[in-house]
Amino acid sequence: MVTxxxxxxxxxxxxxxxxxxxxxxxxxxxxxxxxDILVGNDRAAQxxxxxxxxxxxxxxxxxxxxxxxxxxxxxDLLSLVEExxxxxxxxxxxxxxxxxxxxxxxxxxxVDKIAFGKDVDCLTSRRLAQVMLGKSSFLPATAEAVMAILxxxxxxxxxxxxxxxxxxxxxxxxxxxxxxxxxxxxALVTVCHRQTKPLSDYTQSAEIIISATGQPNLIRGxxxxxxxxxxDVGSPEGDVDFLEVKDRxxxxxxxxxxxxxxxxxxxxxxxxxxxxxxx
Length: 279
Ligand code: NAD
What we know:
By secondary structure, this protein is of the alpha/beta class. It folds into 2 domains: 22-120, Leucine Dehydrogenase, chain A, domain 1 (Rossmann fold, 3-Layer(aba) Sandwich); 141-260, NAD(P)-binding Rossmann-like Domain (Rossmann fold). Helix content is 40%, strand content 15%. It is built from 11 helices and 9 strands. The protein has helices spanning 7-23, 27-30, 43-59, 74-86, 107-111, 125-132, 141-152, 175-184, 200-203, 242-245, 259-276, and strands spanning 3-4, 33-39, 62-68, 90-95, 164-168, 188-192, 208-211, 229-232, 251-252. Strands 1-9-8-7-5-6 form a 6-stranded parallel sheet, with helices on one face. The protein has a 3-stranded parallel sheet with strand order 3-2-4, sandwiched between helices. The chain is globular. It starts with a strand and ends with a helix. Nicotinamide-adenine-dinucleotide binds at residues 44, 142, 168-171, 173-175, 192-194, 196, 199, 212-215, 218, 233-235, 259-260, 263.
């Protein structure tokens, strides 16, 4: 029997815990803002921004969405980040990545301006280096979400020793930090990417498949085996052909309603971790 994981239900529980942690913070800490900057008009990013705002409000977190047109320049973004760094009313800063294509060469430089103590989603090189070295007290929200879901699937960090895990996608915000964390906990991790051919050579023999590519239907029924745990990070459409794969494996996350809502709750939990230190 397959377990189709309800990220929505699980996120509700996580959110309750976050709300409880938030409620006991000192008043001045509770007022701190979580700033999320969206540049351009990517539809999926807009939806995520709105979902974060709704969840933050339910918890009581002061959420500031900053929506900027794609026409802004690098210097505008740098000045904005510097201003937010100085603003003592701001506790956390993040960008909805990726920035529009014209920023490709300068994106990391802009993101790296976020003050280390306000880097709520591990976007800066400094925080990411800590994550890769296993020295950060938290992971990027998406990686936190995947780890929380694995725990629910019976493969949490204490049960990863010698587990064969295939991570598909090697971006700095999802694949890479996840693979590092899984390895740290003893999993046997293979990272696959665009040049991995054929992907099925790796997926079929894995115990856990985590796909984060943004390629709809990349994982087909013939690429999986019985007993596997499948975590689909892709959005807004999943990477996994859900109907083909679902009945062949033991645990699967749907899209929508899987990793996405859990990521939102994990981001709020990261924010509380950050601002607690200011209390
Ligand atoms: P990215 O474009 O930076 O990286 C994609 C990765 O996938 C690359 O490493 C690339 O080599 C790999 N890839 C692409 N096509 C492939 C293929 N055919 N075979 C094997 N590997 C392939 O993307 P990202 O920012 O890491 O995001 C990945 C996906 O996860 C996107 O769909 C994004 O929307 C989604 N995402 C979801 C959440 C969430 O909370 N659910 C959060 C962040 C990102």
